[in-house]
Amino acid sequence: MISLIKMNLKLLLRNKGFLFFLLVTPALSAFILSVKMDHTVYNDSDKEKTVILELDDYSEKAVYTGDTSACIIKVYDASNSELSEYVLSQMAATGMFSVCRADVSGLTEEEVEKIAKKDAFDDRAGLLLYLKKDFDVAILEGAWEQGVKLYAVSQDERQELFITELTELFARIKQVQILVGDDIPVMLETLTAIQGNLPEKKLVNLAGKEKNTLTEQQINQRAQIGYAFAIITLGFLFCGVCVAHSVIEEQNNKVYTRVMLTKLSSRHYFLSKFVIAFIISALQTLVLAVCLSLIQGLDVGINIPSFLGVIFLLGLIFSTLSFLLGVVLGDVMSSNYAVFAIWSISALLSGLYFPLDDTTKALKTLSYLMPQKWFMNASELLLVGDKSAYSMLLCVTISYLIIIISIGGVGLKIKRYE
């Protein structure tokens, strides 16, 4: 078995194609990580989710302006006061609601009523909110129902959450009013001071875990890590194909038959190939480590040993996948086509090139079948210093290897039977 490993490694190191992917893809990945990014396409869109979005007029559709991943609230603001500005800003700052405001100060209540009835059918807002001209007076008198009118125009369950948040906000305003009086600027200043002393609310995702809030620099680093993953996984896949090519050649040249005449079992034969895939992943990670060490002032956002560990585990998955895929297909060209298709589709669906936050639920679910998605999530955890990423990476790697080896083993048995 050791002799097989040594022999195959010598043959691989003489293969120009193997050396190309072994050396060039890690170097290219290191170059991508070294590029300084002074802007990001993600940060601007994230900011838009927590501010009031202004509509040109009340006829403009909120669905074209608002964030469709949040509950869109179309606001008809006839008050245009400091208090209404504060209330809407607080609701938008939660990140759960996309607040789109239209100025209707020149319209009567009857006209706004007609517009709301029309928008209930023509627009796709989750909730319509009308702030009347006497909004400030109604709030200060503790009768906010007289200054606010709500139109439920969808089945979105987040409507109830919005109403609850809005009611609690009005209650806080009333409490501050009792303390400082009816002077609205003083009230808002007090409210802002109180809000600054409160513990920051943390967003929770569907899995019940707190969502990570990344800085602009970390968002840039996350994007660069995604591009680096895309490049280096291509190298892992084609290096795995080179291992598969050696198996195909050994079968065609009866080397495999002669090996089976010795005491070595077929299980140990393929185990030796898996060891080679392991060594290849380690070699590419080593080349990447050398390239990163040559870059002055490199800041990946993650400590280098942890980042290299992530790369090694990702490479182990893809090297094993392409190796078994090539053996099952039994043809080098078919293997090349297959691994290139896997690389391009998996990188696209896992969000390495662009985020999938605003895509459909089905596409988001599909992305979790891709290994890169889990490794990107782990990288995000490492960027914010969450140590749970290590256990997650270990579990994900073992799970994918079990699945890949199991399916590959079944495929080999079927092929042998045929």
Summarize the structure.
The chain has helices spanning 2-13, 16-34, 41-48, 82-93, 109-122, 135-140, 158-180, 184-197, 216-252, 255-260, 266-293, 304-329, 332-349, 361-367, 371-383, 388-417, and strands at 53-54, 71-77, 97-103, 127-131, 148-152.
SSE topology sketch:
Layout: H1 2-13, H2 16-34, H3 41-48, E1 53-54, E2 71-77, H4 82-93, E3 97-103, H5 109-122, E4 127-131, H6 135-140, E5 148-152, H7 158-180, H8 184-197, H9 216-252, H10 255-260, H11 266-293, H12 304-329, H13 332-349, H14 361-367, H15 371-383, H16 388-417
Parallel strand pairs: 1-3, 2-3, 2-4
Antiparallel strand pairs: 4-5
Helix pairs in contact: 1-11, 2-9, 2-11, 7-8, 9-11, 9-12, 9-13, 9-15, 11-12, 12-13, 12-15, 12-16, 15-16
Task: Summarize the structure in words.
It is built from 16 helices and 5 strands. The longest helix has about 35 residues. It is elongated and about 95 Å long.
